[in-house]
Amino acid sequence: FFFEINKKIMENFPRNQQPKYISHSKRFVVERPKYSAQFFHVYMKRSQTLRPELEKAANQKWNCSNLGIPIRSKVLDSKEGETCVVIGEVYKEMSQKPCVLDDLSKELSLSPLIPQHKYTSANDSLILEDESGRIVLKGVIDSSISTLITGISVACLGSSTASGEFKVEDFVLSGIPNQSPLHSILSVSNSNSNDNYLAIISGLNFGKNNSTSLLELSLLNDFLTGYLNEEKYSKLASSIVRVVIAGNTFSSQSSGNNNNN
Hints:
Blueprint: H1 2-11, H2 40-62, H3 64-67, E1 84-93, H4 100-108, E2 125-130, E3 133-139, E4 153-160, E5 166-173, E6 197-201, H5 211-225, H6 231-238, E7 240-245, H7 252-260
Parallel strand pairs: 3-5, 6-7
Antiparallel strand pairs: 1-2, 1-4, 2-3, 4-5
């Protein structure tokens, strides 16, 4: 009796829309690896765009103007023993990072490659670069190696050393621009809008030995399929026409077991 009532209730809830779908992703499909692509111009454009913001952030944090701390226009303009600020793009040197030559060897079956479980290691180092050159970063920034990645624009306070490195005393990122406020997504349940939505999910961690994750997956499934027995959520779910899984699909625990098997 209970299931009959529940079935009738669910029949009155809105179902997922089925709009006409046309894929425009063909231009992103890599049919054959190309090793000629360079990203220097992308990083330099980013650096030029963010430099004013980084100069502003550096002045606010270190009071450079009043204390007479120079902000160098190029990373190689820093002088030994002189406290200054240099601005550029981070390059993360990772010994375990995949190499183009390794990919080519794999493609040509020249030699077997040892699979890596991760690309980071304790031997990673950070380099700051701009159009003039690059300089190795040392000092307090060493504790942030695991959180900084290639391509991040950063301003570093410190001085050059006799060995040609830049000893960082402090550093600052540009931050994020002011964000426009977003309307509550649940407002779709109170409107007659015919908008369609894209659901982006991550962190599914399939294979994780955790009962909590199973409950979360069950709730996610019920939400996406419109079976949460609450009209506002069902109406929202009916407007979701595509689901994109954006990473962390499998648990690291399961990947280790798979490798052993």
